[in-house]
C-alpha cells in the first residue's frame, strides 16, 4: 500500500469513527440497564434477586427469562420505605410517581 | 388485520423486530396451597381449572374455536384458538401518550415506568429527563418553544418504534396512532392466541418469549417486558397511556403493565370474597388476577411465576404492579407451540 492510499484509509476510518461518536449518540450510550435487569447480571435463572426503586421501596423475587435476558421479577410484597423519593424532577418538587 | 404469533414468526426479521418492540390483596381466599417463593407450585387436579372463554368481553372477540394443538412439551392437546380485535372493549379511546409541551399536565399526558415505579409523563417530567436519568444527552423538547418532539406521523412512529432507532429520531417521545393500522373506529390489530383448553402443568417454569404473556379479557395483548434498554439507549420514551399500553405497527395496542382503576383506566371488580378480579389469561391457560385484594394486600405465597392456588380459583397468577414492566414471571403450564 502506498502512502497516499494509507492516508486515505486513515482519514476514512477517522471520519467513520467521528460520525458514530458525534451523529449517533446512541452508540456512545448503551448502558441504560434498568434496575430489574441489573439485579440479575451475572446470575442464573431462578436465582434470588432484589432491587430498589426511586423511592427506596424494595422489590424481592427471582431472575426470570424475558426474550433471552434475565430480569428480576418480584414475588414478595413490596417492602415500602419511609425515606423521601430520590427520583423526582427538579422542576416539579412533588413526586411524579402515581 | 390479524396477527398470530408462533415461534416461527420470530425467524422472520420484520416480525421479530415488531414483536421485540412490543418489543408490561389479601392472600387469596382460604386454602392457599402455594409451595413457597422460589419454585413453581405443585398443582393438584382440583386446582387445575379449565379456561372459560366466556370471560372474554363480547365486543373483544372476533372468533373462538376449539382446535387440536401441540404443547411445548410435544404432547397433543386441545386448545382454544382465540382471535381478539385488539382494541380494549371497555374503552372508547386510547391515550393520551406523549405530552405536547413541557407545560402539559398529567390529565393530558400518559405514563412511563422506571425501576418499578409508574410516573406521569408530564411536560415537567420530560423537561427534567436529563436530571432524572443523570445524562445530559436527553433533550426531548425544543428549549425555545417548549414543544415536545413527538413522532406525529406514521413514518416517524415506525422509524422510532424499533430497536435500531435512526439517529435523527433520537430524543423523541414515540407514539403511534391506531388509525394507521385500522380503518374502523374501536378496532385494533386483531391477534390470534392459541391457549390450552385445560392447562397442563410443567415440570419446571417456562420462559416468557417474544410471543408475549397472554390476552386480556377486553381484547388487548399482554406483552412481554418492554425492551427499555433499547428504548432509553436511543434517548426515546415509548410513551404509555394510563393503562400502561401503547401502540406499535405489529402488535397494535398492547399492555406492558396492569393499572386497573387508576385515573381513566377501567377498574376490575373484586371478587365476592375480596380477592382481586381477573383480567386475562396467560398463554398457558391460567388466569391472571389483580395484584392486590380489596384491603390493598398482596399475596405472600406466590411462586417464582407469581402464581399460587386457592380453593375458589385453583391455580392462578397475580400481576406485578403497574410500573414493574411485567405481569407474571414465567409460565407454570405448557404453552402451545
UniProtKB/TrEMBL annotation, chain A:
Keywords: Signal. The keyword Signal applies. Residues 1-28 form the signal peptide. This is DUF3551 domain-containing protein. It comes from Zhongshania guokunii.
From TrEMBL, chain B:
PROSITE patterns: PROKAR_LIPOPROTEIN. Signal peptide: none annotated. InterPro entries: YHYH_dom. Residues 193-292 form the YHYH domain. This is YHYH protein.
Amino acid at each position: 500500500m502506498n502512502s497516499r492510499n494509507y492516508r486515505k484509509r486513515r482519514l476514512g476510518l477517522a471520519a467513520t469513527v467521528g460520525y458514530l461518536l458525534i451523529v449517533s449518540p446512541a452508540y456512545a450510550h448503551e448502558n441504560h440497564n434498568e434496575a430489574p435487569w441489573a439485579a440479575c447480571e451475572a446470575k442464573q435463572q431462578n436465582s434470588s434477586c432484589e432491587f430498589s426503586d426511586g423511592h427506596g421501596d424494595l422489590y424481592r423475587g427471582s431472575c426470570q427469562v424475558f426474550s433471552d435476558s434475565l430480569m428480576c421479577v418480584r414475588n414478595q410484597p413490596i417492602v415500602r420505605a419511609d425515606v423521601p423519593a430520590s427520583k423526582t424532577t427538579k422542576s416539579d418538587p412533588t413526586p411524579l410517581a402515581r | 388485520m390479524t396477527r398470530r404469533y408462533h415461534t416461527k414468526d420470530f425467524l422472520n426479521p420484520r416480525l421479530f423486530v415488531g414483536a421485540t418492540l412490543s418489543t408490561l390483596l389479601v392472600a387469596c381466599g382460604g386454602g392457599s396451597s402455594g409451595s413457597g417463593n422460589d419454585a413453581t407450585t405443585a398443582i393438584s387436579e382440583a386446582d387445575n381449572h379449565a379456561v372459560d372463554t366466556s370471560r372474554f368481553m363480547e365486543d373483544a372477540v372476533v372468533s373462538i374455536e376449539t382446535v387440536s394443538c401441540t404443547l411445548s412439551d410435544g404432547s397433543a392437546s386441545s386448545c382454544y384458538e382465540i382471535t381478539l380485535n385488539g382494541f380494549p372493549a371497555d374503552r372508547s379511546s386510547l391515550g393520551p401518550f406523549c405530552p405536547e409541551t413541557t407545560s402539559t399536565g398529567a390529565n393530558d399526558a400518559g405514563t412511563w415506568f422506571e425501576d418499578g415505579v409508574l410516573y406521569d409523563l408530564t411536560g415537567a417530567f420530560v423537561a427534567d429527563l436529563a436530571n432524572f436519568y443523570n445524562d445530559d444527552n436527553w433533550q426531548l423538547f425544543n428549549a425555545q418553544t417548549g414543544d415536545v418532539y413527538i413522532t406525529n406521523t406514521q413514518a416517524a412512529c415506525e422509524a422510532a418504534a424499533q430497536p435500531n432507532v435512526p439517529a435523527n429520531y433520537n430524543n423523541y417521545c414515540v407514539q403511534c396512532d391506531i388509525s394507521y393500522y385500522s380503518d374502523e373506529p374501536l378496532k385494533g390489530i386483531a391477534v390470534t392466541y392459541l391457549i390450552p383448553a385445560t392447562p397442563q402443568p410443567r415440570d419446571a417454569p417456562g420462559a416468557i418469549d417474544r410471543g408475549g404473556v397472554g390476552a386480556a379479557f377486553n381484547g388487548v395483548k399482554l406483552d412481554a417486558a418492554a425492551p427499555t434498554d433499547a428504548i432509553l439507549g436511543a434517548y426515546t420514551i415509548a410513551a404509555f397511556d394510563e393503562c400502561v399500553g401503547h401502540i406499535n405497527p405489529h402488535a397494535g395496542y398492547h399492555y406492558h403493565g396492569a393499572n386497573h382503576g387508576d385515573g381513566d383506566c377501567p377498574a376490575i371488580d373484586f371478587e365476592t370474597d375480596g380477592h382481586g378480579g381477573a383480567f386475562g389469561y396467560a398463554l398457558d391457560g391460567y388466569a391472571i388476577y389483580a395484584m392486590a385484594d380489596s384491603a390493598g394486600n398482596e399475596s405472600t405465597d406466590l411462586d417464582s411465576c407469581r402464581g399460587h392456588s386457592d380453593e375458589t380459583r385453583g391455580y392462578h397468577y397475580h400481576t406485578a404492579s403497574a410500573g414493574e414492566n411485567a405481569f407474571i414471571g414465567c409460565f407454570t403450564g405448557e404453552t402451545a407451540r
